[in-house]
Amino acid sequence: MSQAEGARVFREAWITGVRKHFPGEPKSGYITPWEETPEWERQAAGAVFDQVRQFLDLSEQKSRFVATCWTPQMYKHFENPKPGYVADWPDLPDWQKETDADIFEAIEDASK
């Protein structure tokens, strides 16, 4: 998907969200149709769309986030956790990194 197409997806999601969540009648600028959206806003929407897509596409980031969240839980539940339970993300085996990425995606899917 091109950045321009992504920008349009972003804008349409924004408008849908505003119509759903904004209390009362939203300002016209909040729900301006794509064709009337200023160029600066189209560019900004495209940039943010790309950033979010890159985050979602990077299994490394997904995996790292799960591993980062897991480590303090091990310290919470074990006085002296095994080194493998609290290893830094770069030290984890590839299979565990991939598994952590799958966990992230399962949570992402369940949250939809």
Q: Explain this structure to me?
A:
The protein has 112 residues and is mostly helical. It folds into 2 domains: 3-57, no CATH class; 59-110, no CATH class. It contains 4 helices and no strands. The protein is elongated and about 60 Å long.
Shape assignment: elongated
The description of the largest β-sheet is:
none
Strand and helix order:
HHHH
| Class based on secondary structure composition and strand pairing | mainly alpha
The low-confidence runs, each spanning 5 or more residues with pLDDT under 50, are: none
Tally the structural domains.
2
N-end to C-end Cα span: 21 Å
User: Helical amount among residues, as a percent range?
Assistant: 55-70%
- Rg from alpha-carbon coordinates: 20 Å
- Strand proportion, as a percent range, falls in under 5%
Number of strands: 0
Please give a quick description of this structure.
This protein is mainly α. 66% of the residues lie in helices and 0% in strands.
Features:
single chain, 112 residues, mainly alpha, 2 domains, 4 helices, elongated
How is the topology of this model organized?
Layout: H1 3-21, H2 39-57, H3 59-77, H4 94-110
Helix pairs in contact: 1-2, 3-4
